[in-house]
Amino acid sequence: MVGYRDFEKEMESCGTQSNENHQEIDACDDKDYRHPSPKRNKCLIAVFRILAYGASVDSTDEYVRIDESTTILCMKKFCRTIVEVFGDEYLRTPNANDVARLQKKGEERGFLGILGSLDCMHWAWKNCPTAWMGQYSGCHGSPTIILEAVTSYDLWIWHAYFGLPGSNNDINVLQSSNLVANLAQGIAPLAHYTIQDTKYNVGYYLADGKWSSLVQIIFQPQDRKKQYFAMMQEAYWKDVERAFGVLQSRFAIVKGPACF
């Protein structure tokens, strides 16, 4: 849920970033009172309906009387503005304070040094061009676009890698992701912790599936120790599944097939 102040910041940012979204003097010609441009309100209503409810771009004409091409243009400008304004604040690498907070929570849950959970989500692409369908179709049977994300316990998605064709599996996504490339080069948030008298300075991530090259779940654990570890890891790794669920419930556009 977006807070009131964040919503006001979004509205103000969208008004200042776009030349089309400007304020106008009201009908009484009161220069001391300015209200948002009706055009801006119409565009934002159309954008919110698409993002929050998954409405098709041609259905907004029935509500706000703007055509399909204008709706797509408004949504692209809105999303681009959100990234420009809020990207440095939310979609960033954890700083020292963030790492300390994540480590503290991880230690409380039995995973010292963890920085988050990693997983991939497939977003169906309904109107995928015919020439691209083979490239974007994989195990799901229909064209999809892959989102790789690292999520913390508080639903903070601080790493997102989006746009790979659905024909890729998780290991292909990891190999092309800058997350693993940076880890291989030693570029990662510093996380100092000690496990069994061994000191580490780089955090780790929990992952699932046979394709994962990180800390994956133990399949068919035999003894009680491995069973307990597998149970706790599965519970902790569900943070990323929970984040995907909240993302799809708040923004229905990523829950169903993309209609444009």
TrEMBL record:
Q: Where is this region: Disordered?
A: 13-32
Known Pfam families for this protein? Plant_tran
Question: Which species is this record about?
Answer: Tetracentron sinense
Signal peptide (from-to)? none
Protein name per UniProt: Nuclease HARBI1
What spans are recorded as compositionally biased (Basic and acidic residues)?
A: 21-32
Task: Please name the InterPro entries in this protein's record.
Answer: Harbinger_derived_prot
